[in-house]
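Supplementary Text 2. Reproducibility record for the structural model of the 259-residue chain.

All settings were left at their defaults, and a single model was retained for analysis rather than an ensemble. We include the record here because the model underlies the residue-level annotations in Supplementary Table 4.
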Amino acid sequence: MSTKSRRSEHANESPVKTLGRLVFEYDKEMCKSWVEEIDTLMLFAALFSAVVTAFAVASFEWVTKARTDPTTALLARISMQLEHFADPMVPVANLPTLLASAGNNDPPISLGIARRVNGLWYTSLTLALSSALICIICKQWVREYHRVSMSGSSEDFSFRQMRLGGLQAWRVPEIIISISLILIGALLCFFVGLAYFVWGLDRQVGIALITIEGIAAVGFLVTTLMPGLQYCYAALCIPRLRRVPAQCAWKSPQSMLFL
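Retained model, structure tokens:
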């Protein structure tokens, strides 16, 4: 629908109905942006949880293997020997190899590193699933807010203002913003656990991985702190500057914590 047709359609509206229509469109766009953000975060949380679950299941086996009682390995060796005596057809030359393989169930990393990796990865998984739960709850709140339409009466305006005040008083926009911060925390835990794991397997590969993660972390910190640093710089130096610098566009929920 063109702009002229919309204007002609609403030309005979009363001011109250026009105001009600504009308020309803404003609320509709606000709720739409929230729902789109929540859906995106929920999709990312689901995919990320699936990835972390695969790593967490494998890492849990490392801890259980490291806690295996030495008696179990000894009994496995005795069983191998008895099997050899019961079946003389088993070559004696293969017996040391079989005995070594019976007790060779050690995890690829030490128990201390395995515990740290498990703690970080399961923390990451818990944060990701918690963010998905918050997404579901926030979507219910937004749907309930936008459930009643505006007909243009004074009661509708009062009811709408009451619901909007409730959203703001109970920090619903801030809770929606916090979902991305929780997912960032989950990502950080996963990356730190991955660095621990690779470092325990191979130091050279671990150095390469930590270097890549370090570059990503530096970029994240720069984009997070730069808006706040520019604000401080502008507050101190703008009176002495001939030209006002361009505003930093790297604003995000985490950068707003420093503004």
